[in-house]
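Batch job 17 of 40 flagged for manual review because the log was empty.
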Amino acid sequence: MSVVLAGVTKSYGSGAAANRVVKGIDLEIHDAEIFTLLGPSGCGKTTTLRMIAGLEQPDSGTIHINGEPVVAPGRLVPPEQRGLGMVFQSHAIWPHMTVVENVAYPLKLRNDPQARTKALELLQRVGLTGMGDRPAHALSGGQQQRVSLARALITRPKVLLLDEPLSALDAGLRVELRVQIAELARAAKLSVLLVTHDQEEAMSISDRIGVMNGGVLEQVDDPAGLYRRPKTPFVGSFIGHMNHLHAVRRAGSIYIHRVFIRESPGFEEPVRLSFRPESVEFAEVGIPCVLRSRSFLGAFTRFEVSVGQERIRIDSHSDRASNFLRIRECMIETVKMPTAEE
């Protein structure tokens, strides 16, 4: 494993006012793997990355990088000795230096006589051939981020940390750069930890993804597993679109508006069905629905329908609708029974 976290916690503040932002994270990042921490703002993903980098100190737990403990009882290795490369959300370049001077700087600190030559080679790999002697501040945002990436790679780290590196760029450039980052990482057999809130970015380049929510890892899986087999309602709703319908479980069966759905153990209780837009289809008989809208989107047609007071989305390869639908696959969870006061 390139990076291993065990029982890592982090709080800000003290006493009753303490805000516990990371709550006992256990995480393993494999060699030569692109791993993404994905989640909404404030979920603890950036704090976790900063603890790995050495920019934050955990309250408890251990961190190993390439088999060596960098955070353990009585041991705290400083950031510059952890053998990491890091690209921040801001470009973090030195405006008074040229492009090649920015990239070569980490090797200059080591008195490497080949610093400029190596920097020019890296600039070619990130698509900045011929720009080495330009003032760094004169480059576009995307070019400046390429400079930051080249600078992070020049020391040949085994692990590359990426903290929302593309969020400040326009959509087209984000797609181009994330593909380039993935290609460079796999060619160099780097382990990469990417932190992002962008689902498409995470799903497109990651080998595995850890979905964080409220300081905990709710699920770690490959992109297909997260989408097809979410383990919690949050993961299901955060990764792609998820429909929800309320139903009742009665005497071993589940019903929506008195329509039998499937066999299920248990006595009468309210439940919620959660399912993807492509996991439901129109049928000749089944759950009654009312068509609200239809949109042709090229590869499929998107329908919005209502089932009682609830609205759901159907993505179908057919453009034909009916007054009934059938759910092929869904998650079932028990919901709270309303009290008399409610």
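Reviewer: the log was empty due to a logging misconfiguration, but the result itself is present. Residues 12 and 80 are 24 Å apart (CA to CA). Unflagging and moving on to job 18.
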